[in-house]
Amino acid sequence: MILYRILISLAAPVIILRLIWRRLRGAGSAVSLRERLGSGARRTTHKVIWVHGASNGELASARRLIETALARDPELSIVVTCNTETGKALAESWRLARLSARLAPLDLRLVLWRFLHGWKPRALIVLESELWPNRFAACGRRDIPVILIAARMSESAAKRWRRMDRITRPMLGHVNWLSAQDDASAERFRDLGLPTDRIGPVVNLKSTAAQTGPSPEQAASLPAPGPRASTFLAASTHEGEDEPVIAAFVAAHRQNPALRMILAPRHPARAPRIRKLLDETGLPYAVRSEGAEPGPDEVIYLADTMGEMPLWYHLSGVTFVGGSLVEKGGHTPFEPAAAGSAILHGPHVANFRAAYAALDLAGGARVVPDARTLAETLAELAHPEAQARMAAAASAALAETAGPDGVDALLSRIAKLTGIASLEA
Predict the structure, then answer these.
(1) Which long-range CB contacts under 8 A does 211-214 form with residues at least 24 apart?
(2) I need a labelling partner for 88 at 20 to 30 A (CA). Which of 53, 67, 343, 377 fits?
């Protein structure tokens, strides 16, 4: 830990100067800079819990847990932090009373002192794989429980942490309780030094998030671009995926002019680049962020907003899950499966390896490694009956891999560690 503190302290001037430089170049706001430096806590007499996730996927998985906690205790506030502006925007889009969203404080002792002194949280809840030595130690010094939920530890990450044993063991010594998202992750945390009595049952938080569909307001806010069976969703696409997805849709649209596409990029800031690609197709399209609605003549709808993915899932008979044609590990299949959408994905699905393996084996999903295969598969899935068969197979397969709905169990454990008894069911 001493070595880590020395190294991060030496790097601090460079990190802070880079943030300031980005601010001067207009790449960040003054608010973002203050948040990174731990400032800006809101005065409150409420009990506060700090929830941290890396970005969109982690925070989306915790939404139901957060909503349930806030509903059970009207005197509870939650501060959500993340590493990206898009993650912050997603949390803000939920419009939950008593929830504050901001960028995460840097892992520097003075910054963390300022953040913790301002917010005075009763607990730090960490989602998935966000392990920060100074952050955990700062909470430990103040007797703030550190709780890891849906914790993920890949074999390659475990090897890296094992090589830094003098940092890893003291860091994990500040973890009060952990619920892994799979048995392999739990075992790796145990091997790295986390005591067995601090490891709870496995809970796949993203499977519980899948139970939340679009709100009635969302469902009523937009006319469907076409019949559901004729609507294809490209969900959470990353850089390098838009080109093959658009090319596949254009090819499939030539064969089936009734086909419509909703393109929902993972990061809406990429919309200008995507619009150039859409312009090149010559096909008419509408843009969600401009308030446009898909009309009878628009065959593509660019959904460049945050917090509306449940709506797009429920409008689409077929969903391609992004982050899988490029090496991002893939995004959750639980949400499109819960919406009854047929699922397509690329070969890179390490983040949900077991779930996608079960889906592919059961015929609930198909691998589409390139634009040609995607176009051919869209043509094969043009009929509602074919989509329904895949959706039913997906639902059955994921029911066996999802595990129990652990929101009540997680809140019960949080209640015991924080003393906030109202969080119990």
Answers:
(1) 211/64, 211/338, 211/405, 212/63, 212/64, 212/310, 213/310, 213/313, 213/314, 213/338, 213/339, 214/308, 214/310, 214/311, 214/314
(2) 343
Question: What 3-state DSSP class applies to 180?
Answer: strand
The two tokens of residue 46 are 């409420």
User: Residue 32 belongs to what H/E stretch?
Assistant: helix 30-36
Burial class of 315 by CB neighbour count within 10 A (0 to 12, 13 to 18, 19+): buried
pLDDT in tens, 353-369: 888 999 999 999 999 99
Among candidate residues 35, 58, 130, 308, the one labeled active-site is 58
d(CA 50, CA 42): 13
Q: How far apart are CA 37 and CA 17, in angstroms?
A: 12
Please report the pLDDT score of residue 405 as a whole number.
61
Report d(CA 423, CA 107) in Å as an integer. 29
| pLDDT value, residue 401 | 66
Confidence of residue 33 (pLDDT cuts 50, 70, 90): confident
Query: Residue written as tokens 């906030």?
Result: 420
Please give the structure tokens belonging to residue 420: 């906030």
Q: Tens of pLDDT along 214-270?
A: 666 666 667 777 899 999 999 999 999 999 999 999 999 999 999 999 999 999 999
Given a cut of 70, is residue 210 above it in pLDDT? no
> So what's the pLDDT on residue 219?
67
58 is annotated as an active-site residue: yes
* Of 177, 171, 35, nearest in space to 112 by CA: 35
Helix axes 242-255, 271-281, angle to 10 degrees: 30
State the Cα angle at 186 between 181 and 191, rounded to 5°: 155
Span between the terminal Cα atoms of the chain, in Å: 38
Distance in angstroms (rounded) separating the CA atoms of residues 256 and 254: 6
- In three-state form (DSSP H/G/I as H, E/B as E, the rest C), the secondary structure along 348-407 is CCHHHHHHHHHHHHHCCEEECCCHHHHHHHHHHCCCHHHHHHHHHHHHHHHHHHCCCCCH
Q: How many CB atoms lie within 10 A of CB 150?
A: 29
CB 101 within 8 A of CB 80: yes
pLDDT above 70 (res 149): yes
